[in-house]
Amino acid sequence: MSITADMYCEELNTIMGKLAHLQPALVNRSAPLLLHDNAQPHIAQQTVSKIQELGLEVLRHSPYSPDLAPTDFDFFQNLYNFLAGKKINTQEAVQNAFEEFVASRPAEFFKKGINKLPLRWQKCIESMGNYLKKK
After folding, report:
1. Domain ranges, residue 38
2. 87 found inside a domain
3. Does some domain include residue 19?
4. 26 occurs within a structural domain
5. Tens-digit pLDDT profile for residues 72-110
6. How does pLDDT run across 28-54, given as a tens digit for each residue?
7. Orientation angle between helical segments 74-83 and 107-126, nearest 10 degrees
8. DSSP 3-state assignment of 58?
């Protein structure tokens, strides 16, 4: 199934609703931050309008760098490990497994991963396009 701008905008609404309920301080800041890549559904005019409507600030993202691929970040590697060996056959099972994963991680896990992003960005800039070695 392909993700469309319609689907992505619906997901943004859902996320903001859940954030407003679970973490109101994140939603009530001057401009909540959103990091996403430049995939077509993310840069479609409909999505840009939705982001403005929701008052989100989008962090700039490079067009593509294997060194910044989301699967390399702590979150996705840990999610991959958490899901290894699980049989997930339905959308509900996917959602339940994801919620179980998120609930199983302490707040420090998310803070640590987010704080690593600027360092990775800087390394990519300093390497002038050369690939970085994984650590």
Report:
1. 1-61
2. no
3. yes
4. yes
5. 567 888 898 999 998 888 889 999 999 999 999 998 888
6. 777 778 877 777 888 889 999 999 999
7. 130
8. strand
